[in-house]
Here is the input.
Amino acid sequence: ALFNRFIHLFPYILFLTLPLNAFFLKLLYFRKRDLYLADHGIFLIYLYIFTFLFLLLFFAANKLNENLHSGVLSFMLFLYFLYGAYYTLRSMRVFYGQGKAKTLLKFTLLNILAGTTMIVLFVIFLGISIFQI
Here is the structure.
C-alpha cells in the first residue's frame, strides 16, 4: 500500500521539480538577461520529454536484455545511457550558447542541485505516504 501511494504521488514530485530546476538554471545563467524564468522552464519541458522517451526505450531494452542475457546488449545500454547524458549536455550548450567548459560546469552543478532536490522531495513525499496509510 505504501509503494502504491508513493507511486501515485510521483507526478507531484515532477511537477514541483520543474519550476525549481528552472530557478536553478536562472541562477546558473543569471548574466543572460534576455532569458526569463519561463524560457528556462520551456527548455526543461523539452528535456523532460526527451528524458521520458529516453527512459521508455532504455527500460524496454533493459527488459529485453534481462530475457536474452546478452553482454553486447548490456554494453549498448551503457553507451545509450552515455549518449543521453551527452545529448542533455549538448542541448544546454546549444540553447545557452556558452563554451564547453562553462557548460560542463553548469551541467554538473545543475545535476547536483536537481539530484539533491529530488532526494529531499522523495523523503518528504515518502513521509507523506507513510502518514496517509
Remarks:
- The longest helix spans residues 100-132.
- Helices lie at 2-28, 37-68, 71-96, 100-132.
